[in-house]
Write a structure and sequence with these properties.
The chain has 72 residues and is mainly β. Helix content is 14%, strand content 50%. It is globular and about 45 Å long. The two termini are 17 Å apart.
């Protein structure tokens, strides 16, 4: 069975004191894997086995969820 993208979320780390924002995209796949994609470098920077692990990592680094989830 082919692995497909189920949904994605955009997370930001606003660095007001430095004058720019880091953006990461959390992608959920049909095989249960969650990947963090960095659009600036166009690469996957981290992979997780659960949504909870992914969001814990994002919160630890002070990222915040932007609005809502985009469904595929």
């Amino acid at each position: 069975m082919a692995v497909s993208l189920k949904w994605l979320e955009v997370w930001v780390d606003g660095m007001a004191d430095v004058g720019f924002t880091y953006v990461l995209v959390l992608q959920a796949f049909s095989n249960g894997i969650f990947q963090l994609y960095d659009p600036q470098t166009k690469s996957i920077i981290k992979e997780f086995d659960s949504y909870e692990d992914a969001t814990a990592w994002l919160h630890k680094d002070e990222y915040e969820l932007v609005e809502t989830r985009w469904q595929r």
